Amino acid sequence: MAACTGMPSTTATTNVAFDTEAPSRSFRFDYHAELAAENPDDEIRMWLPLPSNTVDQEIGELTVVASHPYLINALQSGDGRSLYLESKGEDLSVTVSFDVKRTATAGGGSATATEIAAGLHTDSMIPMGGKVSAMSASVKVSRGSGTMSIARSLYDHTLDRMTYEKPANGSWGRGDAEWACDSRHGNCTDFHSYFMGLARTREIPARFVMGFPISGAGEAAGSTGNIGGYHCWAYFYDQSEGWRPVDISEADKNPDKAEFFFGNLDENRLEMIGGRDIVLSPEPAAGSLNLFIYPYVEVNGFPSSKVDKAFTRTNL
Q1: Who contacts 129 (Cβ-Cβ below 8 Å, separation ≥6)?
Q2: 236 bridge partner residues
Q3: What are the residues whose beta carbons fall under 8 Å from the beta carbon of 113, sequence distance 6 or more?
Q4: What is the pLDDT of residue 40?
Q5: What is the torsional sign of CA 273, 277, 281, 285?
Q6: Beta strand extents in the chain (DSSP E only)
Q7: Rounded to whole angstroms, how far apart are CA atoms 30 and 214?
Q8: Helices 147-161 and 188-201: angle between axes, nearest 10 degrees
Q9: Residue 61 has pLDDT above 60, yes or no
Q10: How much of the chain, in percent, has pLDDT values that exceed 70?
Q11: Residue 54 gets which letter from DSSP?
C-alpha cells in the first residue's frame, strides 16, 4: 500500500512543516545477503524485502544479482513485495540494487474500508484489551476532541513515557506493545507498537512501516555510506487529513524535532515493507513473521540467524 494518495478533503492539514515544495534527495541503495551452506543435504530458503513506489518515493533501475534463480512475489499478508531463492546444499547470495528519489512528507490520502479495518485489528504483538488499552483510556486529551488532538496527546504520552534505549541482552526490538508499556524503553519498533496500541484503543486506525535510515544528507554525489540497521515509523488515520505519519523514536533522540515528527517525515529514509505478522510467498515453515526487514532464512525448515547482510547507500 502506498504511504499516501491525494489529500481527501478540503480541511486544512495541520502541523505541516513544509510551506513550499517538500525537500527531497536521491540515492542508490544496495541490499546484500549471503549464507554459506554447511552440509550438502541442507535445504536452504531465503526471503528478503523489496521496495515499492509510493507518492513519497520513486524506485528505479532495480537490479538483482543472485547465485540461484529467484521469484518476486507480493506479500500474502502485509504491504509490499519479497524476493525468494533456494538451494540444496549450496551457498546462497543475492544483491538487490535500486535508485530512490525520496521526498519529505506530511502524509495524507484517503483510506479504503479494508485499510481502515486493517488499521484497527489486533496484531500478535499489539493486542487489544490489555494494559496498553487501559493506559490509552487514562491519557487525557488536552488539545481538543478530534482525531488529530487525540493522536497528538497519545504521541506526547508515548514520548514522555518511553526512552530510546537498547540495553545489551534486553528484550527490546520485538515491537511488543505490552512489554513497552512496562519497560518504558526500547527501539523504534517498541515506540511505534505502543503508540499504535494506544491509537487503536481510541478507534484511530494505525499502521506500521519498516525501512532504513539514510545517512549522508548534504554530501556530494558519489559519496557512500554503510547503513547499520533498520528504522520504522507509523501512520494514523484522520478522516479529514488522511494518513498522517509519526516518528516518535526519532523525536525522543532529537527533542528539538519533536514537533516536526508529529505529522511529518524527513527525506532521509527508505520505505521497504508495511504491516506486522507478515506472511511471505512461498510461505515459510515458521508461518507469519512478526517483523520483516532483514533477510529471513530457513535451513531444513528451521530459522537460521547465520545469514550475513550489508546495506549501503550512494548519493546520486
Answers
A1: none
A2: 206, 244
A3: none
A4: 95
A5: positive
A6: 24-35, 43-50, 57-66, 70-74, 77-79, 81-88, 92-103, 163-164, 185-186, 206-213, 224-226, 231-238, 242-246, 269-279, 296-299, 302-304, 308-315
A7: 12
A8: 140
A9: yes
A10: 96
A11: B
pLDDT by residue (tens digit) across 91-106?
999 999 999 999 999 9
- The secondary structure of 120-143 as a DSSP string is TSPBTTB-SSSHHHHHHHHPPP-S
Strand partners, 1: none
Q: At what angle do helices 188-201 and 131-138 cross, to 10 degrees?
A: 70
pTM of the model: 0.94
| Helix locations, the chain, DSSP H | 113-118, 131-138, 147-161, 177-183, 188-201, 248-253
> Helical H runs in 60-187?
113-118, 131-138, 147-161, 177-183
Domains detected in the chain: 26-102+277-315 (2.60.40.2250), 106-215+228-266 (3.10.620.30)
Torsion of CA 96, 102, 106, 112, to 10 degrees: -40
Three cell numbers, residue 306: 547465520
Question: Closest by alpha carbon to 202, among 245, 153, 242?
Answer: 153
In whole angstroms, what is the distance from residue 314 CA to residue 48 CA?
Answer: 20
C-beta separation of 191 from 180 below 8 A: yes
Return the bridge partners of 270, or none: 212
Phi, psi at 140, each rounded to 5°: -80, 135
Q: Pick from 223, 272, 312, 278: which is nearest to 56 by CA?
A: 272
Residue 132 phi, psi (nearest 5):
-65, -40
Residue 299's CB is within 10 A of a number of other CB atoms, namely: 18
pLDDT digits (tens, 9 = 90+) for 25-42: 999 999 999 999 999 999
Predicted confidence (pLDDT) at residue 114 exceeds the cutoff of 50: yes
The x, y and z cell numbers of residue 45, run together, are: 530458503
**Pairing relationship of beta strands 185-186 and 163-164 according to DSSP bridges:** parallel
CA neighbor of 75 nearest in space, from 292, 298, 299: 292
